[in-house]
User: What shape does this take?
Amino acid sequence: MSYMKSLKCRECGKEYPKEALHVCELCFGPLEVNYEYDKIKEVLTRNIIEKRPTNMWRYKELLPLDNDPSVGGQVGFTPLVRAHNLAKALGVKELYVKNDAVNFPTLSFKDRVVSVAISRARELGFKIVACASTGNLANSVAANAAACGMETYVFIPYDLEQTKIMGTLIYGATVVGIKGTYDEVNRLCSEIAGKYGWAFVNINIRPYYAEGSKTFGYEIAEQLGWKLPKHIIVPMAGGSLITKISKAFKEFQKLGFVKETPTRIYGAQAAGCSPIVNAVKEGTELIRPVRPNTIAKSLAIGNPADGYYSAKVIRESGGWAENVTDEEIISAMKLLAETEGIFAETAGGVTLGVTKKLIEQGRIPKDESIVVSVTGNGLKTQEALYGKLNEVTVINSKLSEFDDLVKANGKQYALKG
Ligand SMILES: *Cc1c(COP(=O)(O)O)cnc(C)c1O
Ligand SMILES: [Zn+2]
Assistant: This one.
């Protein structure tokens, strides 16, 4: 049973059939999935959700498939960690980390959007699945397509992190490295989608794909005991995730699952690629594209597809946007690891670095609930840390050499016997 009614233009409201369409032919506005909320309200309760298996499909009535998912059945329901040590380090009272660094199967939040997109692409009869990616999407499309036996083409900027490239090739996908930025990759992919008619998850399947991100927000609300946080900080690349977290919170209010309490939403980008942050700070609706230069490659989109809507969501929620330098990204990655034992990728460093900055600026108060969105795993962006951590201390396997080392460290330990 599906509660997806149609696709609908975000600008002029024109409705379209539930096919592989993504732009309005009248006004070129983006299309979005439109649900029958009245019917959902009749069949879905918090109690029913709580009894279901712990994955993102426990909210299936609010996801855009006609049938059950054909791939990615185990994705989601990642931990929401109460981060006491990190809270202390930042001087705040109630802090949580939503940890999609351990999402199944490819350790980033992209598994959420991809399981929806590929399942929908199969419902629509596509045989070949493809994407334009900054890295994590490549991993997830390749893995999930392999799991359901689809042929896969993945397009990336050729100079991505080795681990992200390896973590795509392993699944047998055809990987095409483009000599250019993500924005150039994306433009080429639009042409290829038009000519070859494949399912590009983040281009012609984008309205369905983007809905998968809502589950990140649903889970936070449920894991907080059916409450919305007062503040949430979200990393932005194309700007889709942040708009869908906002949509998720609004839907839960509309369905009566949470009280109508406002959440301030904050956007995070790297200083080397912050077109959305710039727009928020300048108070303009216009997103000026930039040429990215940052270690946070997963967020390096210079011309974000949902930039305009992200800035709007941030502004309307009463939130703000900030950016951090590469150096600040690395210290934030270390801070998260050393306080909470969570190894996030560079994007996580961006989000935590921005959180720290906003608290220091007094924009986020110290006594209200705060959620930091960690969206990817640090094992995939190790290059960023080369030469930035302590070295391994190498000795021969002799007790005397270890004794010398302890002495050199100047520490005192109680000895046995
Ligand atoms: C893709 C990605 C994002 C942001 O995605 P958008 O929806 O394009 O803004 C955030 N974090 C990580 C790790 C990502 O891979
Ligand atoms: Zn329109």
